[in-house]
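I would like you to sit down with the record closing this message with an eye to the fold:
=====
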Amino acid sequence: MSWTEADIPDQTGRVAVVTGANSGLGLETARELARKGAVVVMAARNMGKGAAAKADILSEIPDAKLELMTLDLADTKSIKAFANDLMEAHPRVDLLFNNAGVMATAERETADGFELQFGTNHLGHFYLTFLLMPALLRADAGRVVTTTSTARFSAGKYDMENPHLRGEYDPWVAYGHSKRANLHFSMELNNRLEAAGARVTAHAADPGFSVTELQATSVKMSDGSDRQTFFEKWVPRVGQSAAAGALPQLRAGTDPDVKGGTLWRPRWIIRGAPVEGKIGKSLSKPSDLIAVWAVSEKDLGIDFDVAGMVEAA
């Protein structure tokens, strides 16, 4: 049988954080979690869009428990402020959906000087997870779900000696790097949590070709090349709705039978019901997972000591 939003267990009493909750996959993820009774913290960079998204959910689910908070994943100061405010209000976090992202942009930098896509899609979520880990460890069975993409297959050389592609930038290679890093972060995070005996698990989710604002935003934030335009035109024709695209991450986050360290994707790669996907040998090299973790700690100037955090919890 196909797994749908109707299969999401009751989430009453749970606190869920969804990044990029103002549109697309994040909005649909927030909607279904709220429908099942969770307190949903909607993290968004644009408060106008965030307020509109919150109103949209409330128009359908009047008793939804929603909290809108500002989060700019391209700025570590914003991430730290968000995490501090969140944990003051919610010392325990049950679900973290690392969902937000940008795609195939022109070469730009974050507020901290990182390449925009690697900095936002991966480093921003790596840092957010690091900061929220104490709250996640207070949950009975916390989960971290990080959104990857089929673009992980197009990361090229995947050179962690130059993760920001300085001097050799290509928008699609950079996007592939960030999405492969999302997968590798999820896998290595679960490895370390499992080794430390934590109740928290980490998972990756791939939405396939989902119709969201990402395609149009990509065109606006790039030179509008043929490839960006192609995806803007063809994803709506061959892909699936944002609601369907959100199902892999919703299943990864809520299905009680899901195991940590797994990848969830559409059955037919670009569309279809959410199923567990295989992670091939080329995408699961332990050296690559460790390299991503190491460069992330170095860039952010942190020591993400999972074992130490679990021991201190």
Summary: The chain has a mean pLDDT of 93. The radius of gyration is 18 Å. The domain at 9-208+241-312 is CATH 3.40.50.720 (Rossmann fold).
